[in-house]
Amino acid sequence: MELSHGTVAVTLSHNPNISAYMVTNGVVSAADEADLVQPLKEGAALFLATTRATTPMQKLGNCTDPSTSCRHDADCSVGGHTDPPLSYGICDESSGYCITQGWCPKPYTAGANTQVSQLDGIEHLAITLIGTIDFPRLGGKNNWMTTEDGRNAKVTWSLPTVLKRGGVDQVEVTASGAVLSLVLKWSCQLGPGSKECLPALKVYDIGKGAGFYNEYAQYYQQSEGGTPVLHRDLNQARGIRLLVSSRGVARKIDAYACVLQLFVALALIPIASMLADLIMQNLFSERRHYREYKTETTPDFSDVRAKVEQMEKHTKSQNAKRLEYGEEA
């Protein structure tokens, strides 16, 4: 038996006739993998954004921070908000927030034009897993397996099926996100006449309802008064984080190991010596010599033993008489 780990690649797919879509401020727009998955290509993982807030055309400057409310400059000197060169403890009394240097405007503030997009039609999405695994210690040429080598393995599952197997609610996941572990589990019996080994999908909610949040941005330069100025579009997304892996166990009957175990077992029970003696006396070519040296005929010492016993009795009698004589004296 051997335990092993493999590799998995995951991609997002959708129904070719019915696509998922994003709703932004009541406006519906089609969405494909390039719109929903960020980053687009990631090893053994995939992030599907279900809710995304986009703040366009941010640039570096001094602006109010909604997380630091104030009424006077002194309020901005409390809690570490005086930290040159990024902040100097200045309060923008018109907005009621401290002024700090950063990417402006901040999301959801005046002039930010933050747009929130919601994924709909999640039931039309599916994931495709391409997995491999290898069992090198068991030997043989067919111990490396993949879902792409022609075996009748299922590789595509609808997203609602994946969520159901993970025990998470589709509505809650769309709003707050989730972190799921997707495992292709292999249980293989190798060797001649064995059945085709097919992986099974196991889904685990490792986030335990904590959701998943991610930020990313697209950077570009835009001319202002003839001078190029660095800008960015900030994306704040919640969604489904999928971590994929491949692992399994394989078993193979080894004739050499079976014979070795048989003889080890026989050596541990009393019948082993009897079986060895039977083989030596009846099957080996030198069995005649074995019989001769196993038993050796010795002379008959019965007369000698009788004389010894007689002498011992005589000695005991003499000793008894001496003791008796000594007591009479």
Automatic annotation (TrEMBL):
Chain ranges passing through the membrane: 259-280
Molecular functions (GO terms): channel activity
Localization terms from the record: Endomembrane system
Principal subcellular localisation of the protein: membrane
Record region (Disordered): 309-329
An individual GO BP term: calcium ion transmembrane transport
Record key words, sorted: Ion channel, Ion transport, Ligand-gated ion channel, Membrane, Transmembrane, Transmembrane helix, Transport
InterPro entries: P2X_extracellular_dom_sf, P2X_receptor
A cellular component term, taken from the record's GO annotations: endomembrane system
Family that this chain belongs to: Belongs to the P2X receptor family.
Name of the molecule in the record: ATP receptor
